[in-house]
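Example record

The entry below shows one chain as it appears in the dataset: sequence first, then structure tokens.
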Amino acid sequence: MGLKLVNRHQRGGGGVPTRWVSFFCIFSFFLGVLVVNRLWGVLDPVKLDEENSSVKTRQKRELLPSINCEKKETSTRAGEIFDQVSETHDVIMTLEKTISSLEMQLASARAAKASNQGVPAMATKLRNKQFKDRQKVFFVMGIMTAFSSRKRRDSIRQTWMPQGEDLKKLENQKGIVMRFVIGHSATPGGVLDRAIDAEEEQHHDFLRLVHVEGYHELSSKTQIYFSTAVAQWDADYYVKVDDDVHVNPGMLGLTLARHRSKPRIYMGCMKSGPVLAQKSIKYHEPEYWKFGVEGNKYFRHATGQLYVVSKDLATYISVNRHILHRYANEDVSLGSWFIGLDVEHIDDRTLCCGTPPDCEQKAQAGNPCAASFDWSCSGICKSVERMEEVHQRCGEDDGAVWSTKF
């Protein structure tokens, strides 16, 4: 339109003069600058940031007390929740132990009922009464022995195992039962059995099994030991130990007491040795093929010199003894019985210290051992001659088992 106006003026027509057009353009330009400057002053980014910061600061100051209160309340609630969770966990553990104990008692009752079939009613009642009237104790220690091991037994009697009235006192006051465990000979009533009868008459420290003694029957002997011990004593733990191992009963009791809240434990020095397929080797495993290809290792299990099982597991062995498979080595057999069960394996190296100087150095360092033997001999080498030395150098004080609270 402006172009047309100019052209019309140039042609002499009656349009707006050119100077007015120029004036209008200049006026528009300055007016625009003025408006922009005003707006720029209002929307200055620096000022906006400062104002926003000031507003946020005021808001924070206003909100800070309430936030601090909320934090304190949240912290208090978190502490209360943690305490409740801890209490709930303790209750659950107690319930689990109670339920497990009831399940084992039920299983024992069923097994007893099954075994009583065909037995006269009077004998059944007597057996059930004996089971209910079992002595409640802390732990039972079965010391596996043989007919030929009289000198080994005497070496233990003269060192770490109390004798006579002290043995009874240990049971009554501390709940600790110790017995040498042995079966009978292939000809019951023979000279070997009579020798054990005479020894029992003198010391009163045997647990006799309905079992024919023999080296290749150790897995069966272990089963019968647990079954017999469970039937006679209501113990928290059942211990198996060989008669060429040195034991500190007080230290063993302290070790077991730490795990009393756990329902099913299997404790010892865990190992995983090779499965030996060669027939000429001492620990040959005839069923080696069950463990995979030749050269494989056994599953983890406690070494046979000393191991511990809790009451539920000992009861499980007793109830199911007729269907539990026995391998060539009794420690492997025991470990296999717990495969697939909800059992806690506890690897405790205080149960397998070496003989002096190993156990002596550990005792001096404040870490006394519960049991000592030589790995190279699967027991104390020449135990009859050396048991006294091991006891003098690594044994606990005579009063330790009496003064210790379990």
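Notes for this example: The two ends are 112 Å apart (CA to CA). The beta strands are 135-144, 176-184, 206-212, 233-242, 246-247, 265-271, 301-310, 344-347, 371-372.
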